[in-house]
């Protein structure tokens, strides 16, 4: 009976989030508490077996390392904005594209990959889109393609984003090296998905010259960074991956700190103190929204790891879970769009509870669950009309977020499917 109640509670809160009746952080926190009530966990007690001390208090800090990584990643993003690194990257790319519409789009997409390795969400879209979207529109790229190109590029950079590595490691309870191992293998698949999107659009979209319809103007101060500062986004990734190649562990957070220092010292060394403080405060502002979300996700993760969850859900999951590897791949591949609209497969939301239950039951290897949800996450980053980066890019280009969803979903869905197949081949034999 408790298993049915747990599934019903999850379904109810999914509907509340998808219909925007309840904000995602509130819904996840409420669900975490209700799971504790259904499992019969006392309100007060020891940290590992009570609702207030365990689920709420301990859960709030469960993803502390991820939250710190997000703060430092946002700080690095603020440094790239303040010092003109991001603007310079986009301008140089647009200049290389010339007056060829899809050469410009490809250049903006390529820069968006670099920015996507540093930070995500709306701030990343702004860093690329303020210059990139007007440039694409002026060159003749249709509005929906211009908006989509920005978020597709950010999506292609996400598998190499250090905050993503830290979050998936903590959420899935697997070593960071295993997370990196899968995402590095998945990265070429995502690149193929992004290139396919640009290739198809260059063939089917008409050349629409936008001097008849005014393009949005970038509302920012133009800054130029020296060429040697433009490698700033690659510094943290290079440190982590390079050290791993030599059998040494280099943590995400110090790698981000080094990237921040390099970005400031190579652009504004005489204003070091002022720039560091200003961008640090700006980074905290940018990290505020994801920080609150990760706090409540930690509560939900703690709830689904409480004693009693396995006994409650094991009979149901065992009865419906596919054990044939290809049935598993097809099943999750077909259902991948359920991550849209804050749905049940969104790993930065309700999906973390579903993944936590699968891990707690031991139905599938942890790395398989990791690969499945990491692959599906791409649909959220690009095609979800409620995603802040998609909303900003669409509105700035003058289209609706749903237009971006319709144009990109075939590519993000196919890429997610391919990622799930990769996970099955690697971890389910």
The total of helices stands at 19
What composes the largest sheet?
none
Question: Which radius of gyration do the C-alpha atoms yield?
Answer: 22 Å
Element-level helix/strand string: HHHHHHHHHHHHHHHHHHH
Integer average pLDDT: 81
Uncertain runs are 206-215
Overall description:
- This protein has helices at residues 2-18, 24-38, 51-60, 64-82, 85-97, 101-116, 121-139, 143-157, 162-172, 176-204, 234-245, 252-265, 272-304, 309-320, 325-335, 351-361, 366-383, 388-397, 401-427.
- With 429 residues, it is mainly alpha-helical.
- The chain has one domain.
- The longest helix is centred in the last third of the chain and has 33 residues, at 272-304.
- The radius of gyration is 22 Å and the shape is globular.
Task: Name the features.
429 residues; mainly alpha; 73% helix
Concise synopsis of the structure shown:
The protein is an all-alpha fold and 429 residues long. It has one domain (2-427).
Topology, pairings included?
Layout: H1 2-18, H2 24-38, H3 51-60, H4 64-82, H5 85-97, H6 101-116, H7 121-139, H8 143-157, H9 162-172, H10 176-204, H11 234-245, H12 252-265, H13 272-304, H14 309-320, H15 325-335, H16 351-361, H17 366-383, H18 388-397, H19 401-427
Helix pairs in contact: 1-2, 1-14, 2-3, 2-13, 3-13, 4-9, 4-12, 4-13, 5-6, 5-7, 6-7, 6-8, 6-10, 7-8, 7-18, 8-10, 8-18, 8-19, 9-10, 10-17, 10-19, 11-12, 13-16, 14-16, 15-19, 16-17, 17-19
